Amino acid sequence: MKSLRFGRQFQLIEDLANEMTTNGIDLDNITYxxxxxxxxRCNQFDKALDWFEKxxxxxxMPDEITYSAILDVYAKLGKVEEVLSLYERGRAxxxxxxxxxxxxxxxxxxxxxxxxxxxxxxxEMRSLNVQPNVVVYNTLLEAMGRAGKPGLARSLxxxxxxxxxxxxxxxxxxxxxxxxxxxxxxxxxxLWDKMxxxxxxxxxxxxxxxxxxxxxxxxxxxxxxxxxxxxxxxTCKPDSWSYTSMxxxxxxxxxxxxxxxxxxxxxxxxxxxxxxxxTCLIQCLGRAKKVDxxxxxxxxxxxxxxxxxxxxxxxxxxxxxFCETSEDIEKVLKCLQEANPKLVSLVRLLEDENTSFxxxxxxxxxxxxxxxxxxxxxxxNCLIDICRNRNLHERSHELLYLGTFYGxxxxxxxxxxxxxxxxxxxxxxxxxxxxxxxxxxxxxxxxERKETLPEHFSAYTGSGTHRFSQGLASAFDxxxxxxxxxxxxxxxxxxxxxxxxxxxxxxxxxxxxxxVLAS
Length: 519
Hints:
By secondary structure, this protein is mainly alpha-helical. Helix content is 69%, strand content 4%.
């Protein structure tokens, strides 16, 4: 039977077990355990549970391996109550759970993001004096990450190291992901320094996870040191994703020369560029107004097999909004024409004053239906930016209306008795200006009609936590100052601009004609 289990031949094992029973041979604990663990390995969970129940009915007590196997089966089936019931039943019968059983429990609670469940596992292990092994620590660390507990994950990792265990690549990758998600840059860099000083194991996944985290947090110098380490490594030379992370960092920081040098290095070494790396580089070149280099990079990338996706198309569309000359605009649109001709056609329609709103709505609907969900709002944001930059303000308002109509700007306005707020976090600069102008237009009409207004008004731009993130806050601050609107940045909340009813009404009245005020 053990040989058959090794070969994952569950049906033969079950036939053999049934034959033994028919011939009056009682199955012992080891036989049941072999049958159950084989069923689990073959993903025949129902069979594993059936044989476990048969084992219980026979009066035999499951051993540690069998308990752990069935706990895992229940966990994989998402039967949390059954897992806990079996755990308590086993404990009551004298069973002492092993690290594997606790690993199963930790994984189950982690996938559910159940911090109380994770705490229960740790408490049980302490009460039973069970020392976690590396596998258990890895499972619990991943669980802490899913539960959003970076501080507890750090404490758990320190406990692991203090116990004398050496973390492996999976341990370190899990912790780096947790720190990156929590934006704990200092802790992540300290962890990397520990890795180097202790010669802890590093693999491709860990290196690239660290680089990706540096890209997310804008840690340029740290990423360069890490990237250089990879180049010196005998086993973990930078791959396509490593270069992509560096392109992302240089692109976000506007380091055009470094980004282009890296692109040329990739071509020289034969490192394949992927669509994400191409997008990062094109965004960087677009913001720097290096349109000729942009066209070159796009052409080379397409020749090397990069297939434009929605994000790359959105990037090209955003570059169009940056361009200052019609010549540069046409160069970028030519690239976009190859990737998404319908987007280019829509840009042309927006420019034509004879194009009806109905036509814009129909063409935009077609494009959105053919696009992935994550790029639909960026498409409209970029189109609004293009219209704003070309003084096509009526078109920008039409596009904002359509974006709201298609559900791409949920929660844009929020009204209560005491406050009216505008949430611009998901808008581009041009879209934010358009939304604010509409908001103030509605307010003017309400003042004219002498309608009741709330006491407070607030506009939320959000505050970029990325080192290179420009965000909306500074642009919006300039916009309201230009309009002399009485919005000021909140001292308590970053990226929030506030105004009182009294100040806003006074401002609106200063804009209205005297005849309107007299009436």
